[in-house]
Structures are given as C-alpha cells and as structure tokens.
Amino acid sequence: MVIEMYGYMEKILRVNLSDEKIEEEVLFPELARKYIGGSGLAARIIYNEVTLGVDPLSPDNVLVFAIGPFQGTGIPFSGRYEVCTRSPLTGIWAEASSGGHFGPALKRTGYDAIVFTGRAKKPVYLYITDYGIEIKDASHLWGKDSYETEMTIRKNLDDLDVAIACIGTGGENMVRFAGIMNDLGRTAGRSGNGAVMGSKNLKAIALNGKKNVEVAEPERLLRLIKGLAILAKDSPISPIFAKFGTAMFLDTFGPLGDVPYKYWTESDATRGENTEMAKAIGGGKMYKEILTKNYHCATCPIGCGRLVKLESPKEYAVEGHGHEYETGAAIGTLCMIGDMGAVAKGNDLLNRYGMDSIEAGSLIAFSMACYEKGWITKEDTDGVDLTWGNAKSMLKMIEKIAKRDGFGDTLADGLIPTAEKIGHNSIKIVMHSKGQAFPMHDPRTFHGLAISYGTSERGACHLHGMGWLEIAGFGFSPYHLAKDKMLKKYSLSGQALNTIVTQAFADINDALIQCSFSLTGFVTPKIQAALLSAVTGWDVTEQELLKTGERIFNLKRLFNCRFGVGRNDDIIPEMIPLTASRGYVPKGKPLKEAIDEYYDLNGWTRDGIPMAARIRELEIEDIKENLP
Questions:
Q1: Which residues are bridge partners to 261 per DSSP?
Q2: Is residue 256 over pLDDT 50?
Q3: What integer best gives the mean pLDDT of the chain?
Q4: What single string gives the DSSP state of each residue in 388-413?
Q5: Left, alpha or beta for 421 (phi > 0: left; psi -120 to 50: alpha)?
C-alpha cells in the first residue's frame, strides 16, 4: 500500500441498508487535517447530508461510526470510537463515545469511518474482515439483549477475536435514549444513537481486520507513548482510579455538594453532610464487597473499569461490569436508593437492554417526584409503587422502558414528552438542556456547568465544558485562561471563557479520540499536538489543535441552529436554592450576562448563531450551508 497519509486508513465505508449497496470513498488529507477524525469527521459528513426535513428515525438519517488517527497506534487512552447522528431524543446533534476494544478494531478493518444510511428490510448485521464485507441476516438475533447478541455472533462466526457493537431491546424498540453496546458492558450511551441503529434494522457490527496503522515517526511516537504511560502511572490520581473506579466520586463529591439526591431537590449541602447513602453505593464499598478485578480498555495503563460479582440476594445477582459514577448517582441517590445490590443489578439491566443510564435514572427519579406530588398514581404506573427509595420499582421501570410496556412506553420518549403527558406543569421541575437530562453534577456547586450544560452541542453534558475539574481539585486548567478570569467557587466569573476553551478541548479529544478521564491530569493539548505530529508527520501546534476544536464545535452549533436552536435553548431551567452559600439559581441577570459574554467571545450573535466572520475565521465556509 502506498502511504499518502500516516495515521489514517484513507477510506470511508458507506453502507446503504435499503439496497445493500456498499461503497468506499477516499478520505482526503485536507479533510483529515481540518477535522482530524472521530466526531469532527462525522460532523463534517452529517452537516452536509442531514437536512432540515430528515426525521431522526427515518431511513434518510445518517449514522456514522468514526475513529481518529490515534486508534491502532498504541497511544494510551485511545481505545475508543465515536457514534454520531441526528438525535431522536433532542432532534439536534447526537454523539456518544465508548471505550473497550471496538475502536481499534474498526481501524484495523482499513476504514476511518462507516456511514450508514437507509433501512434494511429485515434485521441485519454488518460483518467486516480482511476477506470482504457482508450484510448478514440478524433475524435470529432480534429480541436478544446486548450480551446475548454479542456472544451469539461470536459463536456463530466461530471467531473469538471478532469485535462487536450492537443494540439491545432498547434500541430495537427505538427507546429514544437507547445506546450502543460493545465488549459486554461498554456503552456509547447518550443522545439515542441506539434508537437510530434500531430504526435502520441494524442489530450489530462485527469486525475482525488485521491491517496495520502506519505512522510517520515510529521511534518518536514510541518515546512519547512511554513518557505518557510513565506520566499516567506516576500520577497520584491513577491508583485511586485503578482501585475505586469513577464510582469513587460518590464517596468524594458528596461533601462538595455535587452528588444529587431526590431528583435535584437535595444534596449533601441540605443533608447535614450526610454522605452515607452515596457511600453505600460508592467505589469504596464496591472495592471491598463485589469487585473481582479491573477492566482495561485497549491501551489504557490504569484500568478504571470495574468487573464485579454479586451472588446474594439472589434477586440482585450479577456478574460483569460494575457501575460508573453517573449510573450510581442516576439510579441511586437521584432515586434515593442506597443499596449496592440494587444499583449493581440496575446497571446490569441497563447494559443488557442497551440504554443510557443517565436518562433512564433521571426519568425514574422524575416519575418518583411526580408520584410523591400526586400527579401520577399507581393507576398510571401499571401498579408500580414509585415511592422514593423503592429499588424493586426502579428495576421494574428499567424493564418496562426497554420493552415500551405501559408507563414505560411513556418514559421511553424522554423527559420532555413524559412531562407533557403527565401535565400539572411538571415541565417546570424537569432538569434538562435541549431535552437531554442533566448529568449527575450540580450547577449550584459548579456554576460553570450552567453555561456548558446549556450550550453543549448534544444537550446537557458534563464532558463538553469541563470547568468543574479544576475546582474539584484535579489540577486541570485551560492552558490560556486569562489570569484575571480565574475560576472561583459559586461564581460565574471566568466561566464563559473557560467553557469555550474546554468545549474546544473536548472536541479535540473526541476527534483524536482519547478517554475524557485522561484529561484529569495526564493529557494536555501540548501532549496531544506532539502525539499527532509523530503519528501524521504534520507539524501540529497546540494552538492549531485548539482552533480545530473550535471549528468542530462551531460546525456542530451550525447544525443545531439549522433545527431551531437559539438563545432560549442555552438557558438551563431554574433550580431551587440549597443553602445560602450554594444556593445559586441559574436564572436572571448573572446568567444572561455570562451567556452574552460566551456569545461575544465565540463570535456569535446574541441569538446564539455563529456569525459569517467567525465562519470565515474557522475556515468552514466550504460547507454547503453556511448559516441555518
């Protein structure tokens, strides 16, 4: 093979499921340099092809699996892939990332992205090896959960090395926040990509390629890889992540006031610093009682993933992946459940059914809040007792949502449709941005989240805009944040600039692609620029990377503006005050002024639309539609 471009396979695979037409197209160097890969490349494809009239669950929607230049190179924290589309949950930009081993496997098939269009006449799955590409019948897989699907495909193909991404019952039934599962428990969870996969009758993708990734400067890259591995190993954060996983945040973030309880009406700030419920489902107890060993995604030197086993009580018996912080808080404290067994079982069900745990937990907790107020009764919930802390009811509702059974069918469409059906002005207590539920971090503690939740490309997101990392004590700080704009607790000061920088950084990260937890002390734009230069042979600076991140973010914003997103969508709902010190309610003049500052710094109009000058500056004027 003649190498035109290092770090890339130089090909995009297009699969039209309606007529089973499979084509290859060239990934040109100019496009790769401009958008890198991952969600950046996917944004460029989707912006040009998903127009205003395309329904998210129609055959015309475009679903893109993409990887970046780091996959398959051995760079630490790069065992990931991105899935992007128009969201059936929010109607705007959708992206989700997952770890494990599927991302590098996609690279080894010889493609930088797979683009799906159309809808298969019957359930199918895509199978790619070095010997060819097949669209195979998946009728026998339809109805199986994600674990059963993965194991059945592996058995039928008689291939232990095959990497599989698939949907479970939630995706088949087009639950609007269904995720895509791989490696028996890793999830591309948010925004409803699994529902789009289900709408296309695409049950799975199975990969077993053996192609190598050529890099420009292998010796330099090896030195950088070794240095990054040592940096990660020597970091004081690494042994904590390795020992307790992300569920440790349930133990440690409570005193900060960050862990939400009782559907955002309580926190440790109102509970007298009582963290017992969170600790009962946290990383410490998991380590002591049910952890069997660590799970390492490909190229990860830390292994923050949990593998657990629980035998008693029998109703909660599980063996597999343990819960992360977001899942523990969403189906735990948010629902007032402090039972490790129940949360472990709920996590297992969510993985098997293939659903976003943040969205599912938020819907169940919201329903419990409505149940307490008398807005819904047992008659509405099919006899399920949705009182606070009822673990059995939480588990039952996960099942009902996945199967779209009764009240579960209502919840399966997301928070806003659910509130509209319940009525009683319940929409006022829904904590969301653009129809996507808040992650489990509190804007009343980390005020910058009020901006990043509101302006994130995919709706409320704690990973796109990460000012909370610095205040939480991880030592991360935007590398060019002005000294007079340093962040303060319980303040919006400096947060507009901080959000812009960290949103751009997040989009760089999702284009390359690396694990977001590597940003908590191991990876910086300077390191990423050096790695990318060694892989590609380009002379990449951290300033160029940041501009690329801004380009990607603004292209996604233009996509959202096409579907009507504007200023009103960037203001998060009012939240009740918790205490005098942490009682910030993200509403009114301070937030308005912060959003104004954010728009001005971004080069957007006061209606939230990127201006023509900003589009020219970022060199994205070649897109088919510059303005929505």
A1: 266
A2: yes
A3: 92
A4: TT-HHHHHHHHHHHHHT-THHHHHTT
A5: alpha
Contact 462, 468 (CB under 8 A): yes
600 has pLDDT over 50: yes
Non-local (6+) Cβ contacts of 94 within 8 A are 56, 84, 85, 86, 87, 88, 190, 191, 192, 193, 196, 458
What contacts 489, CB < 8 A, 6 or more positions away? 471
CATH number at residue 105: 3.60.9.10
Identity at 328, one-letter amino acid code: G
**Domain containing 76: what range?**
11-208
Q: Are residues 542 and 612 in the same domain?
A: yes
Which of 377, 406, 430 finishes a domain? 430
Reply yes or no on whether the pLDDT at 577 is more than 60.
Answer: yes
Q: Is the pLDDT of residue 604 over 90?
A: yes
In terms of Cβ atoms closer than 10 Å to its own Cβ (0-12, 13-18, 19+), residue 541 is: middle
The answer on 466 and 416 residing in a single domain is: no
Q: What confidence score (pLDDT) does residue 506 get?
A: 92
Measure Cα distances from 332 to 205, 285, 325, 373, 582 in Å: 32, 14, 10, 20, 22
Q: What is d(CA 322, CA 553) in angstroms, rounded to the nearest whole number?
A: 32
Whether residues 477 and 587 fall in one domain: yes
Q: What is the pLDDT of residue 468?
A: 60
Does 393 share its domain with 274? yes
What is the number of other CB atoms lying within 10 angstroms of the CB of residue 261? Answer: 24
CA distance 520 to 502: 12
3-class secondary structure, 292: strand
Non-local CB neighbours of 107 within 8 Å, separated by 6+ positions: 9, 67, 71, 72, 211, 213
Q: Would you say residue 231 lies in a domain?
A: no
User: Distance of CA 333 to CAs 190, 200, 308, 327, 388, Å?
Assistant: 20, 36, 20, 10, 10
Residue 492 pLDDT > 90: no
- Residue 479 confidence (pLDDT) above 50: no
Put residue 297 in one of left, alpha, beta given phi > 0 → left and psi -120 to 50 → alpha.
beta
- Each residue's pLDDT tens digit, 57-103: 999 999 999 999 999 999 999 999 999 999 999 999 999 999 999 99
